[in-house]
Amino acid sequence: MITAAIFDMDGLLFDSEPLWQEAEYQVFSRLGVKVTPELSAITAAMTTKEVTEFWYQQHPWQGDSLVSVEQAVIDQVELLIKQKGEAKPGVKKILNFCKEQGLKIALATNSPYQLIPVILDALEVRHYFDVITSSEQVEKGKPAPDVYLKTAQRLNVEPKQCMVFEDSPSGLAAGVAADMKVIVVPQKENYDNPKFELSRFKLASLFDFSKHHFEVLTAA
User: 153-160 long-range contacts, Cβ below 8 Å, gap at least 24?
Assistant: First the structure.
């Protein structure tokens, strides 16, 4: 039985990765760090704290603390979201479907809590969510299951009664480790990653999720 739907945010509801890369480039370049697309790709699934530590290890800078640099990245991403934010295809369709099924709806993300309302307001979907959890509120971010387990606890549901929507291998790993049923909607360039074989379903878009998928998950 499925009683709750939990959604990742970055890359699933919102095409945030280009904005994170732009913000990282702007902030870290000012510190003398050589930011390359290849290295930026490595940071895609990290928390902002982990991203800042990663670039510091690549090129230690003087003066600014890691905490202040991390905050500068978050502030820059917030600015870019307000300028360019828009929902990925199928977001409102699937949220409405979940409401129609009487499911509890939650968000579980590695993103800083500061950015969550900014993104949800930009997408005009904040009112759909009963619970919002950031990895800042748990000990470890994805791929650890902490943020999903915390979300299930706050929803007052069993993890095995949750279906999770993710776009990344690390998010999939987190959902599976939490004993939840995970549906992945990968980025086009990552669609054939063999790590996604652990998912219950792999879809090209949130638009593709149907009542059939839901019934299969409910019966499992």
Answer: 154/106, 155/4, 155/104, 155/106, 155/130, 155/131, 157/3, 157/4, 157/104
- Per-residue confidence at 56, pLDDT binned at 50, 70, 90? very high
Q: Would you name the residues annotated as active-site residues?
A: 8, 10
- 15 pLDDT tier (thresholds 50, 70, 90): confident
- 214 and 132 co-located in one domain: yes
pTM for the whole structure: 0.85
Per the listing, tokens 């928390």 go with 47
| Interacting residues of 153 by C-beta distance below 8 A, sequence separation 6+ | none
Of 60, 84, 108, which one is at a domain's C-terminal end? 84
- Asked whether residue 181 carries a pLDDT value surpassing 90, the answer given is yes
Structural domain range at position 62: 17-84
Q: Please, is 64 exposed, middle or buried when counting C-beta atoms within 10 Å of its C-beta (0-12, 13-18, 19+)?
A: middle
